[in-house]
Amino acid sequence: MRPAAATLDGHRARKRFGQHFLSDPAVIDAIVRAVDPEAGDCVVEIGPGLGALTQPLLERLRHLTVVELDRDLAARLRAQPGLTVLQADVLTVDFGQLADACAPRRLRMVGNLPYNISTPILFHLLRWADRVQDQHFMLQKEVVDRMVAAPCSAAYGRLSVMLQWRYAMECVLEVPPQAFTPPPRVDSAVVRMEPWPQPAPLDPALLEELVQAAFAQRRKLLRHTLGRWLQARGFDGDFDLQRRAEEVPVAEYVALAQRLAGLTPA
Length: 266
Known about the structure:
The structure is a single chain. By secondary structure, this protein is an alpha/beta fold. Helices cover 32% and strands 21% of the residues. It has helices spanning 25-35, 54-58, 71-78, 95-102, 118-126, 141-148, 158-164, 204-214, 226-232, 250-260, and strands at residues 7-8, 11-12, 21-22, 42-46, 64-68, 83-87, 107-112, 132-140, 167-175, 180-181, 188-195. The strands form 3 sheets. It has a 7-stranded mixed β-sheet with strand order 6-5-4-7-8-11-9. Strands 1-2 form a two-stranded antiparallel sheet. A two-stranded antiparallel sheet has the order 3-10. It is found in: Cytoplasm.
């Protein structure tokens, strides 16, 4: 295994940024084919790094916006024609402004997300899902497994519910550590996320609080966890609490959140 400080194209990978640069041409080609960008698409790439995906994407697009935290990498990217470079922490970026600039087209998001903050990034992007056409992200495979997990499986949890309420998702590619420089200590995968055109209306913060309560002690029956949370809120409606959190489908969590918010009868 190469050392964590391995260099590629003269740049030393920085551990604090969780940098692992995609370097396998076959994997790069497979990701670009999965995204299938067309000229005129409004594509935003998160974490372009050394541009492994950036260049083949640009070959199909007239323009590409990239978000890069590393100041040195951002400077290198600015020298490339056709790029708008935002040197920023992705968690501070207002993607609504980027969507406004692309209107009436919707954003297409791609990227090799930093594994140490991938979940916060996914939750950050949720608020602009209605402005997005699709998202293709490289993530730790374990995270992708949780995103697409079905009920009654060990991987099914809070992330599954929160994202499946808003997106149709599928794992489109599995990627071994050897495809990166330096190689991470985990397997990776690419997930495709397509926002539902008409998601169930609800308060995402309420759904998140509800699901967090449900999965707080996933080995216990819901009457010990979600039941107490519902009781504290004065909810006396009908909901089967003689199950574990992982046995409840996404649609039932969503319906419960709607009832709590008064969007449907209790």
